[in-house]
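QUALITY CONTROL LOG
STEP: pairwise intake check
CHECKER ROLE: data steward
CRITERIA: each record must contain a sequence immediately followed by its structure tokens, with no blank fields

ENTRY 1 OF 2
RESULT FIELD BELOW
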Amino acid sequence: MNPNEKKAPLRALLLVTSPKLSKKAVDMFHRGAIPILYKWTAVGTAPSEMIDILGLGSPDKSVLLTILPKPFADEMQKKLKKELKLGAIDSGIAATLPLSGANNLIIRMLEGFCGNVNDIPERKEETAMAESKYSLIAAVINQGYSEEVMDVARAAGAGGGTVVHSRRIGNKETLGFWGMSIQEEKEMLFIVTENENKLKIMQAIGEKCGMHSEAKGILVSLPIENVIGLDD
């Protein structure tokens, strides 16, 4: 596994919206046959009294995450804005985040979805990501394997991580074609590390807890511009 073997301009598309609108968004993603999609629940931070006064509805939120080549992510973001009326009260937000690396399974799945991602030209912003000192590694694994993955990451130089529980809601036929586990319940492990350790950590997780293992891990990394709390 070589997270930087292919330099496709990938994006993580993140949607935070109400549970009701998230169902509509999931239908949109499924109609587009998007192969990678994860969902977890969250709670808004506004006080309940303020929510009532502003008519914002429930503080419960749904978070959807998918990975796409940048042009496809930009187009889907526009569709989400139009169909979910993002920007209106209690509608939610959609954001795209640049990825600085991904394991080969993700590259192959996206090529099956939209053709050769390497045919999409790089942009200047892609080279700028290499100047970032820190990266966020996100590992999506089967439920119950986060401690094992974290042990592997620590042995490769990681300091610590944060686990978020989520569900995979991608198309079962598509997932089966790629040999991915049908287990829906997932854990997402987030690790902040210096760039010089990123590749080593991702390779270690991929080798011991990747798709060939019971953890069925897939990996991406995102550049971080600034970070506080990691300095000695």
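ENTRY 2 OF 2
RESULT FIELD BELOW
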Amino acid sequence: MQLDEFLARAFPEVKKSFLRGAVRSGRVSINGEPIYASHRLRENDVIGLELDEDELAEHAQSVVELEEPLVVLREDEHVIAIDKPSGLAVEPERDVMRPSLLGGLVELSRARGAGIAGRGEFRPRLVHRLDKETSGVVLFAKTLEAEQKLREGFDGGTVHKEYLALVEGEHPLPDGESAVLDFPIGGDRRKSGLMCVTDEGKPARTEISVAERFHGYTLLRARPLTGRTHQIRVHLSHEGFPLAVDPFYGRQRTLLLSQLKNDYRKKRGEEERPLIDRTTLHAAAIEYEGVDGARVRVEAPLPKDFSRALKQLAKVRPHRR
């Protein structure tokens, strides 16, 4: 990764503008030599920093307070797992003062350092991401040792992630069986910021199986075997089963009860509220190897909007054999 991105991850509580300024002024070096912010790091590079703790604290970035407190799914001395709600970005968004998961975790760490009994301050280290509109479990390393262990796990494929994806269409995959979607993924030249299946892309593999069936819809379990951007969404859309709600790779921005129920009648004077109005993708579980070598599994419960959509589908769109 680029040097400035590495520094931003290493010091998430410090303003990125200050870190970039430190690079420009020659106070950051690579292998003893001054360097530029966009320099790409290589294995075994040694980064030197002429920065002290007081200076870093002086340039701490303001954290936008979260509307709801963070839900901690699991925590030990090395790793903390958070249940990310949909609509919350994992990292602070550029030039926009909005809450973020990382910002909330920095604030939690500061609060603990101020005197929460039994737990001290820590520096959250981001090791993977979820899309803003995707809900579910996100891991953060609390120590350098854990960060290295988790990064090796993600790179080596020993970290297993499991998603629930509600898609359009009745998937033909038999119950109890799985299939692997094996399509290379790269940037979509026609749509900036989006991805697509292309022969020029990088290898990408997603294992899927059926979790529950409905008339016209399927709830799939999806396990990404590689880590490409938007991988599950792109693969499912390419196969002809886009997420039930996905404004970029699917057909709909919301899922309404009136779309599912033939005899639906709206109450006079009331506007229909969507069952769910964000991507129907949930990071349900993650399994990794801890610093001590033991396997750890963390699960995130379905949020209310996703559960509401499934409940109504089971009621008005039961599977027809």
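INTAKE CHECK: passed for both entries
DESCRIPTIVE NOTE, ENTRY 2: The chain has a mean pLDDT of 90.
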